[in-house]
């Protein structure tokens, strides 16, 4: 059930006038994160790329936007270094950013390159050591992931082993505002939505619901794959009965490319760029307005909970009637809508691996080439 090789990359065929978004990450040992970040700063600016790059001692996480030919040049440059061997560069063409407010909030009006201590903060307690990324769950390609789901749903024509014939649970590693508008729906399979505000809340949810995972074959998924790496390693670190963890390689993005009709994925895939979400050919609406419960899945208005600042879905009619919102999680805690104070910070509380803070770093005397790696490459 391992991924059987690099999936097709969307490079080398796009027109120069098209706009695109590139998403990739790579866990690997980075001997000099500052030098690599300096290279990114100079190289991406030379190509007029915008977006967010995070470089740490454990690897790189990048979401970039720009002209397709420039993004393809970037991929070619990064692929020339051993550090990025096997990296899944997910490149998609799309419309140019038209909503300045959304583009600015998503970090798609400028370039932000930062050096971080770790790519993904799974646990907010610094005293706890993160799990070893080498213990992450086994990768399944989109086709393999779909085949297992077919077998679980009873629609497979082939006798594909259902994740070693154990009971399968499908675990969403994303946050609740993402799962509101899209998720996997598999007949005969138990699907688990942790309903968390931020990624660092996931370990405590796993601890509290360990009995639902123990002894099962766990199929995990997220937007592009990076959150499953650390989360699957955390589950497997719990020992006996938690060994059978599998993750969707390339995330929902690769799955929808492989199955444009949506396959077993319902609704839209929330993304952290100006596109906001990406759907399948089904064009079905899974989300609902927080106020009136009508079908609605458009986050372009950027409405947020008055308490926790998390994105909420509010239809235009209800936006006209109120500016006070309490998300479902705050409501569960007994909080009511309250009026936003003037000038209150409206930055979304993300806490996600695919999200990034805004400040940019600057470097001087940057050379055109730097040595990034001493040859040690972690498996991805």
TrEMBL record:
Pfam families: Rhodanese, Rhodanese_C, UPF0176_N. SMART domains: RHOD. The gene is LOC100284947. Residues 164-264 form the Rhodanese domain. It comes from Zea mays. This is Rhodanese-like domain-containing protein 6. SUPFAM superfamilies: Rhodanese/Cell cycle control phosphatase. InterPro entries: Rhodanese-like_dom, Rhodanese-like_dom_sf, Rhodanese_C, TrhO, TRHO_N. It comes from the Eukaryota.
């Amino acid at each position: 059930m391992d991924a059987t090789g690099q999936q097709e990359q969307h490079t080398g065929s796009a027109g120069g006038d098209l706009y695109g978004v590139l998403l990739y990450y790579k866990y690997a040992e980075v001997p000099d994160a500052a030098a690599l970040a300096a290279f990114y700063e100079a190289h991406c600016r030379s190509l007029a790329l915008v977006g967010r790059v995070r470089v740490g001692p454990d690897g790189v996480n990048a979401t970039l936007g720009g002209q397709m030919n420039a993004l393809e040049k970037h991929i070619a440059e990064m692929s020339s270094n051993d550090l990025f061997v096997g990296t899944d560069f997910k490149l998609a063409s799309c419309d140019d950013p038209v909503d300045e407010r959304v583009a600015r909030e998503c970090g798609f009006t400028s370039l932000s390159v930062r050096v971080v201590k770790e790519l993904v903060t799974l646990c907010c307690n610094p005293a706890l050591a993160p799990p070893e990324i080498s213990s992450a769950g086994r990768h399944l390609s989109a086709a393999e992931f779909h085949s297992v789901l077919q077998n679980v749903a009873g629609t497979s024509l082939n006798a594909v082993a259902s994740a070693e014939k154990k009971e399968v649970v499908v675990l969403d590693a994303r946050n609740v505002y993402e799962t509101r508008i899209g998720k996997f729906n598999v007949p005969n399979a138990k699907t688990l939505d942790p309903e968390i505000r931020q990624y660092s809340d996931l370990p405590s949810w796993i601890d509290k619901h360990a009995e639902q995972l123990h002894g099962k074959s766990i199929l995990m998924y997220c937007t592009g794959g990076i959150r499953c790496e650390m989360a699957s390693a955390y589950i497997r670190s719990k020992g006996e009965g938690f060994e059978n963890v599998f993750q969707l390689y390339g995330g929902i993005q690769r799955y929808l490319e492989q199955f444009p009709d949506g396959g077993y994925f319902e609704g839209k895939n929330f993304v952290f760029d100006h596109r906001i979400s990406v759907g399948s050919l089904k064009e079905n609406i899974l989300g609902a307005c927080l106020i009136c419960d009508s079908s609605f899945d458009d986050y372009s208005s950027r409405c947020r909970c008055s308490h926790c600042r998390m994105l909420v879905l509010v239809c235009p009619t209800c936006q006209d009637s109120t500016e006070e919102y309490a998300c479902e999680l705050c409501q569960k805690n007994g909080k009511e809508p309250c009026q936003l104070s003037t000038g209150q910070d409206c930055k979304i509380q993300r806490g996600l691996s695919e999200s990034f803070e805004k400040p940019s770093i600057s470097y001087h005397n940057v050379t055109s080439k730097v040595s990034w790696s001493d040859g040690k490459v972690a498996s991805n």
